[in-house]
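Reviewers of the previous submission asked for a worked example of the structure-prediction workflow described in the proposal, so we include one complete record here. The input consisted solely of the amino acid sequence. No template or homolog information was supplied to the procedure at any stage.
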Amino acid sequence: MKLATKLIHAGIEPDPSTGAIMTPIYQTSTYVQAAPGKNKGYEYARSQNPTRKVLEDACAAIENGKFGLCFSSGVAATDAVIKLLQPGDEVIACNDMYGGTYRLFTKVFEKFGIKFHYINMQDAANVKNFINANTKLIWIETPTNPLMNIIDIAAVSALAKGQNILVCVDNTFASPYLQNPLDLGADIVLHSATKYLGGHSDLIHGCLVINDADLREKLYFLQKSCGAVPGPQDCFLVLRGLKTLHLRMQRHCENGEKVAGFLRTHKKIDRVYWCGFEDHPGYDIAKKQMRGFGGMMSFELKDNSKEAVTKVLSSTKIFALAESLGGVESLINHPASMTHASIPREERLKNGLTDSLIRLSVGIEDIDDLIDDLQQAIG
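From that input alone, the workflow returned the following structure tokens.
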């Protein structure tokens, strides 16, 4: 089954009681049992919910995985993965990542005795230098947030094989339409389904996809025991969003390419970070492991003063100044003060994230309107 068909049909069957083509929202907290321990597969909604189960199966199918697990947010899904670890374990993580992930690692899990190494993974060989007997997890974002660096998933995964090291890939920026990390050797794929999977900026949601049954059971135990599960209404909305993911991503990619080209030729722009440029350091890897380059990008002005940056951020009329990404509407963001403010400034600067960087999530509006909006804002 091809991806576009999967997105519409995978995991979804007509409701057996009514024939409804859309999975119902099972808005219930508990399920009646015929006798103690004798039920229809559902006991309590924190543990199981029919709407959530359909979405979990759909997420697994579109990532070419066997098992899906849904959470109340992308951060909740991240939290479950790190809870697989023990005090003394070590994690190798990419040094350019979502600020909320960094905050969770440093402010919550470091105090429980888990050690994190934040490194440049653009050269997979660099990862090998940090692997030791305590390494239990390699954490990858690719493309990275917000500098759009590319990490070779297959090469990094190969380094972990046979060493009792899990590889988790945050695939939020690419979406399953553009990239499938399990096919490249990763053990866990994570999505903030708030973004492209939902696609309409109307929910908070996260999911994990895995192939290994034992790993699925460990993560399911954490999902059930810690309770960070999504409600059925949000699961329904993600299911609805999946049905148009391929159409939306096609337009995100088309618009992204045109916006990136416009910015690169603009006289007031100093640098554009977008992995679809042939001279991007990770272009060859991106072309190999992705089916397109997406609608996420960042840029810097030649005049990198606070005043100039603030003017652009405050002057767009279609690009909304807001956190998040991946919705049908275009967003403009200032990572240093918004999505990545939780990362200490010295760490941001060391990794190349300047105070003047502007990030775009290019939506699916008319491309002429988007370019006109950026032109009038930049001047």
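The domain at 245-378 is CATH 3.90.1150.10 (Aspartate Aminotransferase, domain 1). We consider this example representative of the routine output the project will generate in years two and three.
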